[in-house]
């Protein structure tokens, strides 16, 4: 009888302790966007669930917040309303905006041990350019990317081109594109040689061209742009000329979201898009395809892109410490490898590429290493204070030039004037 009573008492105590632990669990809210196709949202949720299962003292409400634009709008609105999440993935280029809004805190206060410092130093330097400023770390790279060039090997073969060789220069992209552009009996184009999206993220893919022309669109302090630099104008003219002069790209605004589908349906033989589309292309392209670095002009080059983790004000130290622990876990080699394999985003740390899973994946699918290797030529994504306004000026200028509403030089000079008016107060 005594033994039975003791067992009941122990069980009751255990239940009470379990209930208390559950009640005392650190609760986190985590916003994340997904800007590419496939099951990326499901993978994020699976990883989050895996962490929570291994850490019963933490509860994480992972909220899929839509696109990057949707996410930054929601997180700013929630923060201003006193209901900020503890953690969000947002564009690395939004770092200055979040600092200016006084919404985020640096990770530095939570990087205390030698192991913590080693973890922080393990990220690729090219990704940290959009993650650190003023000697502090505000962002941790996660779903990071660079644009890469995809080509249809079957279309190359049909055009008499070597299907294993992508255009390596601006001149080659034009000459290849001319051979790849196909017309029907009525003179209507059925396959364009090249497709570079000019909607959605026009400044980003355009930054590939400016980097290749050896010019930087903005300084590292986020308070000065170079939109009217002659090299920027030259790059924009090349983009416009692909349609108006060379006839290798669809005229007018080329839609970002429709680009993979257009590639799959053979409406374009070459496309530029994010490496984050790599898994989508691998699963859905009905032909053999190749992946290459963007072509060079004065140099090779591409911008980095994608999202960082940010910590938000208004949370307790306990919550922020738990959020940092989650970030360290999900960015660790095994988890980073899972994310890369599922999406095509670039694993942001070298040690992720050393895992057995990533080594096997890269051996089976070498295209996954192209974006990683392109980091050697990469620059920080265009990022300034009041970033959405400033990039909007550039996007509008590109649209005006592409649609023939303004001369290229005029459009970019107007954008520079607008950017100067906004950024003068930050110098």
Largest sheet geometry? 6 strands, mixed
- For this structure, what is the CATH class of the largest domain? Alpha Beta
* Rg value: 24 Å
Assign the structural class, choosing from mainly alpha, mainly beta, alpha/beta, alpha+beta, or little secondary structure. Answer: alpha/beta
Q: What CATH architecture of the largest domain would you give? A: 3-Layer(aba) Sandwich
Number of helices, where a helix is a run of at least 4 consecutive DSSP H or I residues: 18
Strand count: 15
Report mean pLDDT, rounded to a whole number. Answer: 92
Can you tell me the number of structural domains?
2
What fraction, in percent, of the residue positions are helical? 40-55%
- Look up the CATH topology of the largest domain: D-Maltodextrin-Binding Protein, domain 2
Please indicate the percent range of residues in DSSP E strands (runs of 2 or more). 15-25%
Unreliable parts: 1-23
Report the CATH superfamily of the largest domain.
Periplasmic binding protein-like II
Distance between the termini: 80 Å
The general outline is globular
Keywords:
15 strands, five-stranded mixed β-sheet, D-Maltodextrin-Binding Protein, domain 2, alpha/beta, six-stranded mixed β-sheet
Write the layout of secondary structure elements.
Blueprint (H helix, E strand, L loop, with lengths): L1 H22 L2 E7 L7 H15 L3 E7 L3 H13 L6 E5 L3 H6 L3 E2 L8 H7 L4 H4 L3 E2 L2 E2 L2 E6 L1 E6 H6 L11 H11 L1 E2 L5 E7 L6 H11 L17 H15 L14 H6 L3 E7 L3 H7 L4 E4 L9 E2 L1 E8 L4 H14 L2 H11 L12 H9 L3 H7 L3 E2 L7 H16 L5 H16 L4
Parallel strand pairs: 1-2, 1-3, 10-11, 13-15
Antiparallel strand pairs: 3-14, 4-14, 5-6, 7-14, 8-11, 8-12, 9-10
């Amino acid at each position: 009888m005594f033994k039975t009573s003791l067992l009941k008492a122990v069980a009751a105590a255990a239940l009470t302790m379990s209930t208390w632990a559950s009640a005392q669990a650190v609760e986190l809210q985590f916003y994340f966007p997904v800007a590419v196709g496939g099951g990326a949202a499901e993978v994020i949720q699976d990883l989050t669930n895996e962490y929570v299962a291994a850490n019963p003292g933490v509860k994480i409400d992972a909220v899929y917040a839509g696109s990057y634009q949707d996410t930054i709008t929601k997180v700013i609105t929630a923060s201003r309303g006193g209901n900020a999440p503890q953690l969000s993935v947002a564009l690395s280029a939004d770092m200055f905006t979040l600092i200016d809004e006084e919404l985020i805190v640096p990770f530095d206060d939570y990087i205390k041990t030698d192991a913590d410092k080693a973890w922080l130093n393990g990220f690729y330097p090219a990704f940290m350019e959009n993650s650190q400023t003023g000697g502090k770390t505000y962002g941790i790279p996660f779903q990071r990317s660079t644009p890469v060039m995809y080509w249809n090997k079957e279309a190359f073969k049909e055009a008499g081109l070597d299907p294993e060789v992508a255009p390596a220069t601006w001149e080659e992209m034009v000459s290849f594109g001319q051979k790849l552009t196909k017309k029907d009996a009525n003179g209507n184009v059925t396959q364009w040689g090249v497709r570079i999206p000019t909607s959605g993220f026009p400044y980003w893919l355009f930054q590939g061209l400016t980097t290749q022309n050896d010019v930087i669109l903005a300084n590292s302090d986020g308070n000065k742009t170079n939109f009217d630099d002659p090299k920027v104008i030259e790059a924009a003219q090349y983009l416009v000329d692909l349609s108006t002069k060379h006839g290798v790209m669809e005229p007018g605004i080329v839609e970002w979201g429709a680009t993979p589908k257009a590639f799959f349906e053979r409406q374009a033989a070459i496309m530029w898009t994010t490496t984050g589309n790599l898994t989508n292309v691998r699963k859905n392209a009905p032909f053999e395809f190749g992946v290459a670095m963007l072509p060079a002009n004065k140099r090779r080059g591409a911008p980095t892109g994608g999202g960082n983790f940010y910590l938000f004000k208004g949370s307790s130290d306990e919550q922020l410490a738990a959020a940092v622990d989650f970030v360290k876990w999900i960015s660790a080699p095994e988890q980073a490898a899972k994310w890369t394999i599922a999406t095509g985003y670039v694993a942001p740390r070298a040690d992720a590429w050393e895992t057995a899973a990533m080594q096997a994946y890269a051996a089976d699918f070498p295209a996954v290493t192209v974006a990683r290797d392109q980091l050697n030529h990469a620059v920080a994504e265009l990022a300034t204070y009041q970033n959405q306004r400033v990039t909007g000026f550039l996007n509008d200028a590109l649209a005006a030039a592409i649609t023939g509403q303004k001369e290229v030089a005029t459009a970019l000079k107007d954008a520079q004037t607008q950017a100067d008016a906004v950024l003068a107060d930050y110098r």
